[in-house]
Each structure stands twice: as structure tokens, then as C-alpha cells.
Amino acid sequence: MDPITLGMLAILAVLIFFMFRNGQKRKRDTEALQSKVAPGAEVMTNFGLFGTILTMDEDDNKVGLEVAPGTVVTVHRQTIARVIDDVEAETVAGDDVIVDETSASSDPLVAGEPVIDVRTDAEKQADAEKKSDN
User: What ranges does the record list as Basic and acidic residues composition bias (predicted)?
Assistant: First the structure.
């Protein structure tokens, strides 16, 4: 056999190895997620819906998900993407501002988000004058 054929076979063997390895890892991750999915768990679905599991129907693969007090939606069990742990829990402060619970900052802005000033020039100038007076 020539060296090019041996090299191509070696590359093919490495690709097959990684394919099986990734499949096993994906299977372990799925099993770990399914073991955490139980009534009372806070979860996020594939389409970004957060809620708490109320009921589970193993036969039909349906989950009753409470998304707001008194509002229960039924989703397929496979749409649950992850279980929200206490460490990664986030709370909603205000309307649409999400603040990390571990953050002790008194700044109302979330770090890393762009700031867009929608004030008029007159309002900006008035604020600048107030700051200079103090």
C-alpha cells in the first residue's frame, strides 16, 4: 500500500472514532437531562419557554408545564432542553430586564448590554447642567 492510501485510511479511522465518541457523549447528556426531569423541576424548552413541570405522562411523552400561575401548557417531553439549577437561576426584575441573582451591583443595567440613550438633546443638556451644579 502506498503512503497516501494509508494516510486516508488513518484519517477515516480518526473520523469514525470521533463520531462514535460524540454519539456516546450526546447519549450520556440526554440521559442525565432525563434523570433530572421530574415534577417540580424548573426547565427551559427548545423554543425558550421557561416553566415548572407539574405533570408527566410517560406513555404519551407529554409534560404539563406551568409557565405562569394558573397557566399550564402541554409540551412533548423531548422539547425540554435543560433543567434550570439554583446556580444558574435568573430572576426577572422589572418588565424585561433579567438580573443575575449572584450580582450584588446596584447598577440597574445588566453588564455587557449596549446602552441606548433615547433622550432628546435638550433633555441631555438639562441633565448635564444638573450634574455640573452639584
Answer: 116-134
